[in-house]
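$ ./design --mode recover --in tokens.txt
reading tokens...
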């Protein structure tokens, strides 16, 4: 399979971006610094920064992005409360899997970026009223 064929096959599936959150550490520290581990399903397409808060997801116009999160500790509550990104590039929308209360966020890339398009994720953690927002430089990077 050529690189072009792999890229075309990958473009048909959404690019899943998963945030693994150490909720106990983040709540104790009052921030997500050092308590967030990001991954995506496009490593073969050029994404970098895995297992850090500085994931660089490679995506182009028409790609569908799907954000979800997991708690590092199974008993901790973690949910995405919002995604802050340039709306000219992508407009994330909260959705729920049918028949459940499990939420995820999805959006379609409107145009291929000339440079990195940074974004922030707001997380609800535990019983904390105010969400914690990422401060590190995760971004969508064009081809």
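writing sequence...
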């Amino acid at each position: 399979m050529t690189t072009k064929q792999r890229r075309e096959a990958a473009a048909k599936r959404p690019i899943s971006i998963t945030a693994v959150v150490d909720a106990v550490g983040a709540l104790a520290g009052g921030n997500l610094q050092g308590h967030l581990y990001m991954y995506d399903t496009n490593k073969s397409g050029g994404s970098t920064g895995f297992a850090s808060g500085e994931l660089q997801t490679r995506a182009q116009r028409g790609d569908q992005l799907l954000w979800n999160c997991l708690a590092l500790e199974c008993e901790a509550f973690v949910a995405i409360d919002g995604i802050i990104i340039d709306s000219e590039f992508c407009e994330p929308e909260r959705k729920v899997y049918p028949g459940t209360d499990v939420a995820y966020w999805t959006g379609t890339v409107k145009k291929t970026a000339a440079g990195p398009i940074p974004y922030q994720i707001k997380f609800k953690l535990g019983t904390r009223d105010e969400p914690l927002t990422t401060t590190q430089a995760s971004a969508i990077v064009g081809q």
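exit 0
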